[in-house]
Amino acid sequence: MRNYIKSLIDEGRVLHFSLIDPDKVDDLSSLYDVSKELYEHGTSAFLVGGTLGVSSSKLDAILDLLDDFPIPKIIFPSNINLISQKADAIFFMSLLNSDDLYYVVGAQVAAAPLIKKLELETLPTAYLIVGHGGTAAHVGRARVIPYDNVDLAVAYSLAAQYMGMEFVYLEAGSGAPETVRPEMVQIVKRFSSVNVIVGGGIRSPERALELARAGANIIVTGNVIERDPHRAISIIESLGKVKVRE
Ligand SMILES: CC(C)=CCC/C(C)=C/CC/C(C)=C/CC/C(C)=C/COP(=O)(O)OP(=O)(O)O
Ligand SMILES: O=P(O)(O)OC[C@@H](O)CO
Ligand SMILES: [Mg+2]
Fold first, then answer.
1. With a cut of 0.85, is the ipTM above it?
2. Which of 74, 81, 130, 205 is most deeply buried (CB count within 10 A of its CB)?
3. Ligand 1 pocket, 174 CB below 6 A?
4. Structural domain count of the chain
């Protein structure tokens, strides 16, 4: 999985990952149709996860449904109940800017033995909550990194790199009124060698392209898929045309 993602990034592509929030899915057949469209238009992976009200049985039902599409299914965990061997990998993430040790290392220690038993591949990720932060900031008790505090974002990203994490997820929060700013992405990429994932409030091709051109390796969208799948497809198509020098 890691090699799959790295090879796509090394080709100079900016990837799009589709976030499916099980709590927001009330009709599996329409989810299938939307997922098929997302796959056919070039999304590179499905992320499955949510902050509140996600049952592992619903998670498994969605992972089964997504099995028809030959792209990775990666768990985007908000807690240790969201682990399933039906997934291809899990963002093994630490909320580095949390005030609660549970989200920095507690949940990870509790989850690790089960993940080992299930032989689920892990993608070592620093989850950095920025600006608005949304539900994730509240639940994860994050001390959010202000939108304009690039130095702080760089410090956390370098710390993540030096601790061996391969991905940094700059998270503005699901449905955020403002996304992470391109300047923050640009400087984090300039000073660190991590793969940068950006999500939270991205709801237009223009904004997705700005973040891609600033250096984002992976763009995640969730709400726009729930609200306006055709707009999500236009985001996927616009990112598909981006070629960055590596
Ligand atoms: C590694 C393991 C097993 C657990 C990690 C646990 C950690 C660090 C969680 C971080 C804190 C947290 C609450 C993350 C939420 C991640 C997530 C699924 C965000 C997207 O949630 P949405 O469901 O889209 O948000 P809304 O409910 O607001 O739409
Ligand atoms: O739902 P949106 O706003 O696209 O955010 C995606 C993801 O970053 C949420 O954790
Ligand atoms: Mg959401």
1. yes
2. 130
3. yes
4. 1
